[in-house]
C-alpha cells in the first residue's frame, strides 16, 4: 500500500513537545523548504516565519556564506574532537569570535551541542567552582517559575514548567521563585515597585536556604518560552545587587536573547547585567548546525583553570568543526553587515511600533516586547483581563488562524508570541502585521467579540 509522507510521520516519528496521541491520529504539517524569511510546507503553502524557526534562524534561511563555510569544512576536516588537550582550528577560531562579541568579562568558552547541555554544563561549572574554593556546601541553584532552560533532566529541573516536572523526577537542588510577570500581577504596586518587589524574592529565597548553601541564580534576561516576559526596568538592577551582595553566581541564559534579538549583541547589554556565566545556542549558527555553550567569566575561569585536576565533562561533538564553521560564518555576517546595529536603528523600533498599533484591537490586552521579540496577550475583557477561554484555547485558536493565513507564530497560554528574523524589511513587517490582524479578527469573531 502507498504511504504518504504524512502517514510515515504519524507511524514512525515521535515529535518533541507534542501531544503524541493527537499526532498519531492527525499528524501535522511537514515543511519541505525555506527561502529568506518564508517557509513552505509539503503542499507548497508559504508562511512568513514569525518565529525564526525556534527563535534561532535570526538571519533567515538564505545565507549562502554559511552554507559554503559548512561544505568547505566538510572537505577539509568533517570531524575531530577537543578531548584530552587536542582540538582543531575551527573550534579555536570560533572561541575567539565569541570572545570578541560577548561582554568583556568573558574570555573563555565551553562548547556543547545545545542550550540544554550548556545549562547542564553551567551546573557542573558552578559546583566545581565552589568545590575548588572549598565551599562544597554551595550547591543550591535558584531559578524561576515558568522558565525554560532545556530538556535534559538537569536543565529541565532548572526550568519551571509544571507540565515538565510532572513527567519526571528532577535534581533536588533547584528552587523556583516568581518571574516578573507584570501582566499577571493584580496587586497595588506600580510597575517599577513591582519589579523590585519580585526581585526581592531572590533575596528571601537565598536567606531561607542560607547563603552558604546557594551557588547560583539562573534566568533569561527576557523569559522567552514563558511568553516573552519583559521585566520592569527596576528588576535586573535589583537582582544584580542581590547576587553581588550575597556572593552567588549569576547565570544568564541568552539562548533566545543572544546574538541581536533584543537590539544588542547580548541582552546583558540591553539590561546592563554582568553575568558570571552566559548560556548561548540557537542563533549562534543561525540554526544551521547544532551548537551551544557557556561563556565563562574571568572570575570563574581563574578558579577552574588555576587548580589541578580534570574537568570531567564534555561531549563527543563539543566544538564540532561543521557547527563551528556555521558559527564563525554567522558571527561574520552579524559583524560585517552590522545586522544588529542597523536592526536596532530601524527595523526593531518599526516592528515594536507596528505591534503597539494592535493595542486597540478588541481582544488584545497587552503588547510587550523588546527588539525583535514580542508577545500579545489575548483577553475577552481589556479591563478585567478575563481570558478568552479556559485551557489556553484562545491562543491556540489565534495561532491556527495565523497559520491558515500565512504566518507562523507561537501560542503560550493566551499569548501570541513572535520573534521574526532580524533581517526583515519594513514591507515584510507590514505583511506580518496584516496576517496577524486577520488572525486576531477571526479569533475575536470565534468568541463573538
Ligand atoms: N534555554 C532557553 C532560554 C531556551 O529557550 C532553550 C530552547 O528553547 C534552551 C535553553 C534549550 O536549548 P536546546 O533546545 O538547544 O537544548
Automatic annotation (TrEMBL):
<dbReference type="InterPro" id="IPR015421">
    <property type="entry name" value="PyrdxlP-dep_Trfase_major"/>
</dbReference>
<protein>
    <submittedName>
        <fullName>Aminotransferase</fullName>
    </submittedName>
</protein>
<dbReference type="InterPro" id="IPR015422">
    <property type="entry name" value="PyrdxlP-dep_Trfase_small"/>
</dbReference>
<dbReference type="Pfam" id="PF00202">
    <property type="entry name" value="Aminotran_3"/>
</dbReference>
<comment type="similarity">
    <text>Belongs to the class-III pyridoxal-phosphate-dependent aminotransferase family.</text>
</comment>
<dbReference type="GO" id="GO:0008483">
    <property type="term" value="F:transaminase activity"/>
</dbReference>
<dbReference type="InterPro" id="IPR015424">
    <property type="entry name" value="PyrdxlP-dep_Trfase"/>
</dbReference>
<keyword id="KW-0663">Pyridoxal phosphate</keyword>
<dbReference type="InterPro" id="IPR049704">
    <property type="entry name" value="Aminotrans_3_PPA_site"/>
</dbReference>
<dbReference type="InterPro" id="IPR005814">
    <property type="entry name" value="Aminotrans_3"/>
</dbReference>
<keyword id="KW-0808">Transferase</keyword>
<keyword id="KW-0032">Aminotransferase</keyword>
Amino acid at each position: 500500500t502507498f504511504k504518504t509522507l504524512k502517514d510515515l510521520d504519524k507511524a514512525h516519528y515521535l515529535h518533541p513537545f507534542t501531544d503524541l496521541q493527537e499526532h498519531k491520529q492527525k499528524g501535522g504539517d511537514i515543511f519541505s523548504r525555506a527561502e529568506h524569511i518564508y517557509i513552505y510546507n509539503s503542499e507548497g503553502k508559504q508562511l512568513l516565519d514569525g518565529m525564526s524557526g525556534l527563535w534561532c534562524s535570526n538571519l533567515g534561511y538564505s545565507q549562502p556564506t554559511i552554507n559554503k563555510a559548512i561544505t568547505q569544512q566538510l572537505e577539509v576536516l568533517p570531524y575531530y574532537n577537543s578531548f584530552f588537550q587536542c582540538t582543531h582550528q575551527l573550534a579555536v577560531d570560533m572561541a575567539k569570535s565569541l570572545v570578541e562579541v560577548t561582554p568583556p568579562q568573558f574570555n573563555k568558552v565551553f562548547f556543547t551541542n545545545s542550550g540544554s547541555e550548556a545549562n547542564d554544563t553551567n551546573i557542573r561549572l558552578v559546583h566545581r567552582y565552589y568545590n575548588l574554593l572549598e565551599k562544597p556546601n554551595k550547591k543550591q541553584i535558584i531559578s524561576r517559575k515558568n522558565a525554560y532552560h532545556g530538556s535534559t533532566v538537569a536543565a529541565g529541573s532548572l526550568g519551571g514548567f509544571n507540565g515538565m516536572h510532572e513527567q519526571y523526577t528532577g535534581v533536588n537542588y533547584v528552587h523556583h521563585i516568581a518571574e516578573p510577570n507584570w501582566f499577571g500581577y493584580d496587586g497595588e504596586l506600580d510597575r517599577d515597585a513591582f519589579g523590585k518587589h519580585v526581585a526581592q524574592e531572590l533575596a528571601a529565597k537565598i536567606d531561607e536556604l542560607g547563603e552558604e548553601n546557594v551557588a547560583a541564580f539562573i534566568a533569561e534576561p527576557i523569559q522567552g518560552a514563558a511568553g516573552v516576559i519583559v521585566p520592569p526596568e527596576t528588576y535586573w538592577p535589583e537582582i544584580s545587587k542581590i547576587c553581588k551582595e550575597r556572593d552567588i553566581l549569576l547565570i544568564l541564559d541568552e539562548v533566545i536573547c543572544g546574538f541581536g534579538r533584543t537590539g544588542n549583541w547580548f541582552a546583558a547589554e540591553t539590561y546592563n547585567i554582568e553575568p558570571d556565566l552566559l548560556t548561548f545556542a540557537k542563533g549562534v549558527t543561525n540554526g544551521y548546525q547544532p551548537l551551544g555553550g557557556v561563556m565563562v567569566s574571568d572570575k570563574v575561569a581563574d578558579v577552574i583553570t588555576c587548580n589541578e585536576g580534570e574537568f570531567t565533562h564534555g561531549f563527543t561533538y563539543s566544538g564540532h568543526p561543521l557547527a563551528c564553521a556555521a558559527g564563525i560564518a554567522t558571527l561574520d555576517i552579524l559583524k560585517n553587515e552590522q545586522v544588529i546595529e542597523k536592526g536596532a536603528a530601524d527595523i526593531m523600533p518599526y516592528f515594536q511600533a507596528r505591534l503597539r498599533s494592535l493595542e486597540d484591537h478588541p481582544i488584545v490586552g497587552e503588547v510587550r516586547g523588546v527588539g525583535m521579540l514580542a508577545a500579545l496577550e489575548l483577553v475577552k475583557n481589556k479591563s478585567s483581563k478575563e481570558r478568552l477561554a479556559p485551557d489556553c484555547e484562545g491562543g491556540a485558536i489565534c495561532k491556527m488562524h495565523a497559520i491558515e493565513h500565512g504566518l507562523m507564530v507561537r501560542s503560550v497560554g493566551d499569548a501570541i508570541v513572535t520573534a521574526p528574523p532580524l533581517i526583515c524589511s519594513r514591507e515584510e513587517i507590514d505583511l506580518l502585521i496584516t496576517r496577524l490582524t486577520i488572525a486576531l479578527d477571526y479569533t475575536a469573531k470565534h468568541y463573538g467579540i
